[in-house]
Amino acid sequence: MNLNIALLPGDGVGPEVLAQAVKCLQAVEETFNHQFIFREALVGAAAIDKKGRPLPQSTLKLCQEADAVLFGAIGDPKYDNDPEAKVRPEQGLLELRKSLGLFANIRPVLSHPSLLGKSPLKKEIVSGTDFVIFRELTGGIYFGEKKLNEEGTVASDLCEYSETEISRIAHLAFKAAKSRKKKVTLVDKANVLESSRLWRKVVTRIGESYPEVALDFLFVDNAAMQLVLNPTQFDVILTENMFGDILSDEGSVIGGSIGLLASASIGDENALFEPIHGSYPQAKGKNVANPIASILSAAMLLEHFGLMEEAMAIKLAVDKSLRKGIVTPDIKSKSQFGTQQVGDYIAHSIVDIEDNFSVNDENIDLGKSTII
Ligand SMILES: NC(=O)c1ccc[n+]([C@@H]2O[C@H](COP(=O)([O-])OP(=O)(O)OC[C@H]3O[C@@H](n4cnc5c(N)ncnc54)[C@H](O)[C@@H]3O)[C@@H](O)[C@H]2O)c1
Ligand SMILES: CC(C)[C@H](C(=O)O)[C@@H](O)C(=O)O
Ligand SMILES: [Mg+2]
Hints:
The chain is built from 14 helices and twelve strands. It starts with a strand and ends in a 12-residue tail after the last helix. Helix 8 (194-207) links the parallel strand 8 and strand 9 (214-219). The protein has two domains: 1-105 and 261-372, Isopropylmalate Dehydrogenase, CATH 3.40.718; 120-255, Isopropylmalate Dehydrogenase (3-Layer(aba) Sandwich), CATH 3.40.718.10. By secondary structure, it is of the alpha/beta class. Helix 1 (14-32) packs parallel to helix 13. Nicotinamide-adenine-dinucleotide (NAD) is lined by residues 13, 17, 73-76, 80, 90, 93, 257-259, 274, 277-282, 289-290, 293, 330. Its main location: cytoplasm. This is 3-isopropylmalate dehydrogenase.
């Protein structure tokens, strides 16, 4: 298959982790005889520094013309620590999501068998966790009207949702549940928020056309607790933009590190793949950031194009690195392996495909499908 992939390394550890994902895609290209063309562009603080804007027009154009986008991370402390900043790296990512129509952000959460002891949660609690968060990505409080009065003393952000915005992601969530454990949990705050009551109404109605899928509801405060008390109860969590952002970082604790969690952002015409973590500025240039979230995002990219065997080769190679302890310090504190060494090991394991498939003979659970 020929694929044009736009690469947006961004800031902090973004370029380092993205480089490992590219290595893995190149290993897939070589092993399975595909042709991937990579083109790179600026985004975030790096783009503000060079072009004065977090999403230059040339970057957006490259993404619109590509088959898919692979995103690193954005964000820089110089903006985080300046509430008066007129322009912010994060605007680049938000504008990109909106412009590409990426309304569904799919974030799988898995407790890997060889990492059970890594979570601060008890093994008995996290063992067998395999759920996926369907986070609405282009609506809600992130995109509602923002106001600050002239004195700078009162501010507001509007949380607005339309039926259309809710129903298009709800359909994706129900379809995913059909090929998984057949359960959708809508997380909202319908006891307080009008927008959440609309979510409940629309999702309940849509649920009726998926009779094989059970639908239940949780208030977000309770969901935050249930996630760490009893994560195996979940299959597909469907939720709005901000709740999904918060719950997915919380969910990463189950797996052992946020450096493991990948995501796919899907729209009707475009798709972008990115780790859920940020630019982790403290680690920039230190070769310590975990590249696995970025590498697994590349696997999700391949799945998106139906390259299931290729995606499986990446997942098996990741699995092998975890089992053999070829991991970054977030997984094993005294590890002598860095971002690049882990990336090299995984990429080499992909090429060494026979070896990978023998690992699979041991019946490792690599998670249920997130493909819709
Ligand atoms: N999608 C994105 O690009 C994205 C996501 C979240 C935050 N951000 C931005 O990133 C900057 C830093 O934000 P933050 O510190 O709140 O979140 P962060 O995700 O960058 O880091 C939080 C903590 O998670 C851990 N971590 C993150 N990535 C890791 C990795 N690859 N390997 C190992 N450990 C990792 C580290 O302990 C780190 O201190 C901010 O500017 C923020 O706006 C961007
Ligand atoms: C950087 C920020 C805009 C972004 C979000 O809140 O969506 C990030 O936290 C994420 O999870 O992708
Ligand atoms: Mg986030």
